[in-house]
Amino acid sequence: GFDNTGLLQKRGENMNYIFISPNFPPNYVNFSIRLKERGVRVLGIGSDPYEQLSPELRGALTEYYRVYDMENYEGVLQACGFFTHKYGKIDRIESHNEYWLAQDARLRTDFNVFGFKDRDMGPIKYKSRMKDVFRSADIPVARGRVVKSINEARELIAETGWPVCAKPDSGVGAAHTYKLHDDDDLQLFFDTKPQIDYIMEEFIEGEIHTFDGLADRDSRVIFMNTFIFEKGVMETVNEGLDMFYYSLREIPGDILEYGTRAVEAFGLKERFFHIEFFRTEKGLVALEVNARPPGGWSMDIFNYENDADLYDRYARLVTEGRTDEASGRPYYTAYVGLKERENVFRTHTREESVEICGDLMVHRGPIESIFSAAIGDYAYVLRSPELAPLKEAAAFILDRR
User: Fold this and answer.
1) Region of residue 392 (left: phi > 0; alpha: psi -120 to 50; beta: else)
2) Is 148 exposed, middle or buried (0-12, 13-18, 19+ CB in 10 A)?
3) Could you tell me how far CA 211 lies from the centroid of its own chain?
4) Does position 9 have pLDDT exceeding 50, yes or no?
5) Which of 194, 240, 278 is nearest to 374 (CA)?
6) Within 13 Å, how many C-alpha atoms sit on residue 62's CB side?
7) For residues 366 and 178, what is the distance between their CA atoms, to the nearest angstrom?
8) What span, in angstroms and rounded, lies between the C-alpha atoms of 252 and 237?
9) 101: helix, coil or strand?
10) In what order do the strands lie in the sheet with 198-202?
11) SS3 breakdown of the chain: % helix, strand, coil, rounded to 5?
12) Which of 226, 262, 264, 336 has the fewest other C-beta atoms within 10 Å?
């Protein structure tokens, strides 16, 4: 983890917080709103015109600097320099977004800002390096490694057997991820794969169970959650499946043990995280760590399941170095994401789904297109003190003709 020696304890009214792409995804406007309410000067950098930002976001930002190409580091660097010249030392630079994690770290390095620096990003960015950290914390991982040639892949498969999973060593989500069943698949993969490093792993049969939460400046978990995915994201994307996952009111003991151990091993401080495990017949196997909130509507799902405001808890952590710890989860929650495609025919209409769910439904609406391949085109969030009603309602919504 990074060194936080000499971290200046500033109150909110003295803090300068640069938010990278503060309007994406749309629900992240709540980060800016809550930070401003606690006295923070929130400074936005993004590529969209100021006029296209929501009124709520414009009201929360002290100033917004438009960079036409956010991939151009010099442009983003210049924006941070402008804010430093105008407002003084920058205290935080964050996007809460997987895509910008490495750039965030580079900016923090150049401006000496609290948080992950360039030197910290190897185990966060590369899945092969993640395995080393998990192993150092005595957390089981799938057998696998980076393979540069088809012969190296065949050597690995001789150890693991078929099938195997191939995914970019540095990548976001399930894009360009493959399940290979035989040597024909392997040959096709090497003939057509992008020219980037791939990690190949034994295929693990099991549900994905997550450990999500918020860590304080000492890597102490002060909010925690677990989601259960009955299908993997890779299958959901590659096979055009609907998305269904749900949270538990109680965190299983092995998830809690491995999860808190991983948070400390990866040096996650003052940030949200999303750690994925496979639950197999023999126990948990670590998949990967994400040093940002889980995607989609997860931040809002946290709030629904806890009757809480995690955006504000984060803002308090940033400004005061502490926050209230969650005391129990009164609800199970479920996310139901539907693929709305020409070849998908639903048994029930939206109106029928809303009627059958009744008070279980707390939110519904369309999903941004950038997320839809993974989590659906249209989604529902359900909650209940009991899990069974959520599963029954979800099965009704998901039913296809």
Assistant:
1) alpha
2) exposed
3) 11
4) no
5) 240
6) 17
7) 28
8) 28
9) helix
10) 144-147, 198-202, 164-168, 178-180
11) 40, 25, 35
12) 264
Is the per-residue pLDDT at 173 higher than 70? no
Structure tokens at 223: 């909010």
Could you please report the per-residue DSSP string of 2-27?
---TT-----GGG-EEEEESTTSSGG
The β-bridge partners of 43 are: 18, 63
Q: Which amino acid is at 16?
A: N
Phi-psi region of 173 (alpha: psi -120 to 50; beta: other; left: phi over 0): left
pLDDT computed for residue 176 by the predictor: 79
| Joined tokens for residue 135 | 């192993």
- Listing DSSP states for 192-259 in one string gives HS-SS-EEEEEPPPSEEEEEEEEE-TTS-EEEEE-EEESS-HHHHHHTT--EEEEE-SS--HHHHHHH
What would the mean pLDDT of 92-99 be, rounded to a whole number? 96
The position carrying tokens 């960015």 is 125
* Residue 319 in tokens: 């400004």
Tell me the DSSP string of 111-142. HT-SS--GGG-HHHH-HHHHHHHHHHTT--B-
| Sequence-ordered list of residues with C-beta below 8 angstroms from that of 329, at least 6 positions apart, any chain | 225, 247, 248, 249, 250, 305, 306
